[in-house]
Design a protein that fits this description.
Blueprint lengths: L1 H22 L4 H17 L1 H15 L2 H11 L1 H12 L22 E5 L3 E4 L4 H8 L24 E9 L5 E9 L8 E6 L4 E4 L7 E10 L4 E3 L3 E5 L5 E2 L9 E2 L10 E2 L4 E4 L15 H10 L4 E4 L3 H4 L12 E4 L13 H14 L7 E4 L6 H13 L3 H9 L14 H10 L6 H13 L3 H11 E2 L4
Parallel strand pairs: 2-9, 13-16, 14-15, 14-16
Antiparallel strand pairs: 1-3, 3-6, 4-5, 4-7, 7-8, 7-9, 10-11, 11-13, 12-17
Helix pairs in contact: 1-2, 1-3, 2-3, 4-5, 10-11, 10-13
């Protein structure tokens, strides 16, 4: 009904305009009559009156006011208008590259790490003096000639720091993190009490850059982290290790090879026995030593080279149930050490174990870690390309351990001369050929051991 009335009024207005345009100048009386008619219609029709008023307002007011008026009478328009008025404005997008960073509040604890620099030492003065001596056979000038004093352990690296506290904030504890990558992923973490501002970092790899930082747990419940610092250890081998309860422990890795490569560290460790000869219940390695070998160095397999008579019924590793235990007995009689079929059989089996990467890291030993252990170490590192001089250095370094004896050049007649006489252009080739052709080690095992343990030369 309302729509019909609107239409009627619209037709009247159009008629009025049409008559005016068609007749040109309308007489005042005609115009007045038409206007009166429309006015009269508006007066008698309330809807027409409202539209007339709206038309009059539209002729005199800006368009925006007309839209506003429509919104005021249209519930849908009113709802949209209300929503637009209440919706929060979109936040402007800022560019972090151009926007200034919010200035951080001044820390309440400041941590400063001591600088260590490059070529950080891991060898004692006596060890370093021997390793720098041009005479490789001069070891007894520096080691204990009776072998009764433990001199084979490395020098721990001291990491220290200072702390400045502000606003009465105190220190609850420290956490020191050390890793071989600048992001400190998979670090070695050590928690220290608030009274200790240093850490003795032991068993570092040689020729390696380490990264470290310190977190201070404040009494305000906030963890304050220092900047990350770095240091690099000396490159000179061997990487000797400290394992509580065990002597003569070293990493076979770290030595340079004659073709510019390097033996991988953290794969193969040599040392003395973990359990006393003839007594499986008399465990020599301490709980701290077990943590070092199993947890820190990650040993997964133990190869025991002692004769069955020396095992005392031992059938499992003292390092725990998750560590493989392999008994591969070898005679320690120098006259047959590198000639008997029994020893050759054990050597073949040892290389088969070392050819299986799932066994690594591996700890192998005899009684004091010099003769049978020294032979296997010589064969493995020589196979990888370590120079004969460095093979001698590693062998003679055992004199720094508590071996209750001394070792010099007696092994030359036992196996060194045999290896030197084998076919091959290099010492590594001679060892390879001797192991394959005389000892009977499978060539696939020799190749696998080289692939696992040798880092190729850097491009």
């Amino acid at each position: 009904m309302k729509s019909f009335r609107f239409l009627t009024l619209a037709l009247l207005i159009l008629a009025l305009v049409f008559n005016f345009a068609a007749c040109g100048k309308e007489s005042p009386a005609g115009t007045a009559a038409t206007t009166e008619a429309v006015t009269a219609a508006a007066e008698t029709d309330p809807v027409t009156e409202a539209v007339t008023a709206a038309a009059t307002d539209a002729a005199t007011e800006p368009a925006t006011e007309a839209v506003t008026a429509a919104a005021a009478t249209d519930p849908v328009t009113e709802a949209v208008t209300t929503a637009a008025a209440t919706e929060p404005a979109t936040e402007p997008v800022t560019d972090p590259a151009t926007e200034p960073a919010t200035e951080a509040a001044e820390p309440k604890i400041v941590i400063r790490l001591a600088e260590l620099g490059d070529a950080v030492r891991i060898h004692t003065d006596l060890q370093a003096a021997y390793l720098s001596d041009s005479d490789v056979y001069s070891v007894l000038e520096y080691a204990d000639q009776e072998g009764t004093v433990e001199l084979g352990r490395p020098v721990p690296i001291t990491l220290s720091w200072t702390v400045e506290t502000l606003d009465e904030v105190g220190v609850r504890s420290f956490v020191v993190r050390v890793a071989t990558n600048p992001k400190l992923t998979r670090p070695k973490s050590t928690v220290l009490p608030k009274t200790k501002n240093s850490l003795e970092f032991c068993n570092a790899m040689i020729g390696t850059t380490y990264y470290w930082n310190v977190t201070v747990n404040g009494t305000d419940g906030v963890a304050y982290v220092s900047p990350t610092a770095s240091f690099t250890t000396e490159a000179q081998g061997p990487r000797n290790l400290s394992v509580d309860g065990v002597t003569n422990v070293r990493d076979l890795g770290g030595w340079a090879t004659e073709d510019g490569g390097r033996v991988r560290q953290g794969k193969l460790y040599r040392g003395g026995r973990l359990v006393e000869n003839g007594s499986a219940s008399n465990v020599l390695i301490t709980e701290d030593g077990i943590k070092t070998l199993r947890d820190e160095l990650g040993v997964r397999s133990e190869i025991d080279l002692r004769l069955k008579s020396k095992l005392g019924g031992l059938t499992a590793s003292p390092l725990g149930d998750k560590v493989n235990f392999y008994s591969r007995p070898m005679s320690d009689d120098w006259s047959v050490m590198f000639s008997s079929e029994e020893n050759f059989q054990s050597i073949r089996e040892i290389f088969a174990l070392l050819a299986d990467e799932s066994n690594y890291p591996v700890y192998f030993h005899c009684s004091i870690g010099t003769d049978r252990t020294g032979l296997i170490a010589w064969l493995v590192n020589g196979l990888c390309g370590v120079s004969e001089e460095d093979l001698w250095r590693d062998y003679l370094f055992s004199n720094f351990g508590k071996i209750n004896n001394t070792r010099t050049t007696g092994i030359r007649k036992v196996y060194v001369n045999k290896l030197e006489a084998a076919e091959g252009a290099t010492f590594a080739e001679k060892i390879y050929n001797y192991l394959r052709d005389t000892v009977g080690v499978a060539e696939s095992d020799l190749q696998a051991v080289i692939g696992i343990l040798k880092e190729p030369a850097a491009n």
